[in-house]
């Protein structure tokens, strides 16, 4: 869970796309 994209906040259970 990277803090780069707000997407991670929504998907805490699943790994967010941090590229």
Explain this structure:
- With 19 residues, this protein is mainly alpha-helical.
- It has 1 helix and no strands.
- Keywords: Chloroplast, Plastid.
What is this entry, summarized?
This protein is mostly helical and 19 residues long.
Question: Which helices and strands, and how do they pair?
Answer:
Layout lengths: L6 H4 L9
Protein name: PsbA
Keywords: Chloroplast, Plastid
Keywords for this entry:
single chain, 19 residues, mainly alpha, 1 helix, flat, chloroplast, plastid, PsbA
Question: First CA to last CA: what distance?
Answer: 11 Å
Order of helices and strands: H
What's the total helix number? 1
Q: What percentage of amino acids are in beta strands?
A: under 5%
Helix/sheet category = mainly alpha
Gyration radius, in Å: 6 Å
What can be said about the biggest beta sheet?
none
Q: In one word, what is the shape?
A: flat
Share of helix, binned:
10-25%
Average pLDDT over all residues: 60
Uncertain ranges? none
Q: How many extended strands?
A: 0
């Amino acid at each position: 869970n990277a803090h780069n994209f707000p997407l991670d906040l929504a998907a805490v259970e699943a790994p967010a796309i941090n590229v």
